[in-house]
Each structure stands twice: as structure tokens, then as C-alpha cells.
Design a protein that fits this description.
Pfam families: DUF3307
Order of helices and strands: HHHHHEEHHH
Strand order of the largest sheet: 1-2
Helix content: 55-70%
Distance between the termini: 42 Å
Organism: Sporolactobacillus putidus
Protein name: DUF3307 domain-containing protein
Transmembrane segments: 12-30, 36-53, 74-96, 124-147, 205-223, 243-265
Strand content: 5-15%
Number of strands: 2
Keywords: Membrane, Transmembrane, Transmembrane helix
Length: 269
């Protein structure tokens, strides 16, 4: 349904409306400080879906003009996410009475002056869930666009064998030119991309946990373990560049997420 939005757009938007309304209703029921009505929640949900429809329509139109360019797809993905985030912030400000300037001033005071962050256990739990999603699926989409679109099954070079056919016999002892024929054989193995995605998830989660607990040396162990597992395939330059770019991007995102989580937890404890 999500992959073929142009075909199932109405079904996609209906699903999005129901899910948004359901989540906002749960927040209203679970938080007594939110003095909102169901009419406000319905208006907020409908507005988010309408903006979602406009953003998706614009994305589909623009993507058709520059199809097949991975870097352009990355820019389009980032802009799409920023527009959705801006939409949520606008809806929260106009319909849900969220005072963003007060939140930003409070966060600035926490960062600059070291004031403890007054957050409930539920808010901390929701924050950790959000960071979990960012470190896995969200960052996975970003890395996929960054390294380029690859097929579902990637052919990986498992080794190289060289056979030499050299002329031997009575004429071999003479100082006469000889002919050598070399045959190179590449042994390829089909690898399911799903396993690589799951490895990336665990990699970023482990890096994030290691940053939080201060075990920074463990990050080098993760990088070394991945390099050893792909040692034979490093002879292929294309794969080596793909592997290096994906690993560095994954490590960077894991480190950034770990720093953010460590900072928030240190201010709430």
C-alpha cells in the first residue's frame, strides 16, 4: 500500500487518518494536563492527513522527473521528512495548544545551564521508543538512499581463482618466447539484503548502547567484526566502497543517537 501510493492513495490516507486519531485520543486519555476536546483532535487528524496528501502528491510528481538518481532520491527523502515534521509542529501549535517557544526556551536552559529536565517516566519512555525507531528504520531508509538503490539480492564476490596454462617440454629450456594463458574465475554468492538490514539495525543499537554506558572501545570491536566477516569481498572495489560508506554512515548515526540519549538520560536522572 505504501510502495504503490498512487494506486492505493485513498486507502493509505484512510489508514493514516484512523491511526493519527487513535494515537491522539490515547494521548488525551492518558494525560490529564491536555485540556482538549475530541473536535480539536478530529480537526488535527484531518489537517495532518490533508497535508500528508499534498506532500505525497508533490513528491510523486517531482520523483518522476528525476527517477533513477540515488542522490536525488536522498535529497527528496530528507525534504519529505522535514515537511512532514513541520506539518506536525504546525498542527500541534494551532489545534493542540502546544507552546513550542516555551519548550525551546526550556531546552536551551537545560543545555546551557545544566538545569534538570523535568520529564515524567512516560515521556522518557516515549523518547526512548522514538530514538529506537530513528536508530533502526528511519536511519535505515537514509542509509539506503545514501549508498544507492541496490537490488533485493546482491551478488557478492566470494573469491578469485587464477589458472595459468604455460607451455612446457623440450622447447621450454630454450630462450624462445613462450605463451601464457591465464583464466580468472569469480565465485559469486547470492546474499539476501534482509540480513544486511537486520545487521545494520543491531549495529546502530549496539553503538547507541555503548555510547550511553561509556564503553567507547566496543565500537571499534563492532567495526572490526564487520570487516572480518566481509574480508574476502574487500577485493571488489565497488563492494568495498559500498561497505565503507554504509558502515561509516551507520556508525555515525548510532553515535549521534547515543549522544542524544545519554544527554537526555543524564538530565532526567
Amino acid at each position: 500500500m505504501v510502495t504503490h501510493k498512487s494506486k492505493y492513495l485513498v486507502r493509505h490516507l484512510t489508514h493514516h487518518l484512523i491511526l493519527t486519531f487513535f494515537v491522539l485520543t490515547l494521548l488525551l486519555i492518558g494525560n490529564n494536563q491536555l485540556h482538549l476536546s475530541f473536535f480539536q483532535i478530529a480537526c488535527a487528524s484531518l489537517t495532518i492527513v490533508l497535508f500528508h496528501y499534498g506532500i505525497d502528491q508533490g513528491k510523486m510528481i517531482v520523483s518522476k522527473k528525476q527517477s533513477g538518481q540515488p542522490l536525488y532520491s536522498l535529497y527528496l527523502f530528507v525534504i519529505d521528512q522535514l515537511l512532514h515534521l513541520a506539518t506536525i509542529m504546525l498542527v500541534c501549535a494551532f489545534f493542540l495548544n502546544v507552546d513550542f517557544p516555551a519548550y525551546f526556551n526550556r531546552l536551551t536552559a537545560v543545555v546551557e545551564k545544566g538545569i534538570p529536565l523535568q520529564a515524567s517516566p512516560v515521556s522518557v519512555l516515549l523518547f526512548l521508543i522514538i530514538m529506537l525507531i530513528v536508530a533502526t528504520t528511519v536511519s535505515g531508509h537514509f542509509i539506503r538512499f545514501l549508498v544507492g538503490m541496490i537490488p533485493d539480492r546482491l551478488s557478492l564476490s566470494e573469491g578469485k581463482y587464477v589458472l595459468t596454462n604455460e607451455k612446457t617440454g623440450p622447447d621450454a629450456t630454450r630462450n624462445m618466447p613462450s605463451i601464457q594463458e591465464k583464466y580468472t574465475y569469480l565465485i559469486n554468492k547470492k546474499s539476501d539484503r534482509t540480513r544486511g538490514v537486520i545487521i545494520g539495525y543491531f549495529e546502530r543499537l549496539l553503538v547507541m548502547v555503548l555510547i550511553v554506558i561509556g564503553a567507547y572501545s566496543g565500537i571499534a570491536f563492532i567495526a572490526a567484526a564487520k570487516s572480518i566477516a566481509r574480508f574476502k569481498q574487500m577485493d571488489d572495489r565497488d563492494f568495498a566502497e559500498y561497505f565503507l560508506l554504509g558502515t561509516l554512515a551507520s556508525m555515525f548515526i548510532g553515535v549521534v543517537c547515543g549522544i542524544v540519549v545519554k544527554f537526555i538520560l543524564s538530565r532526567t536522572s
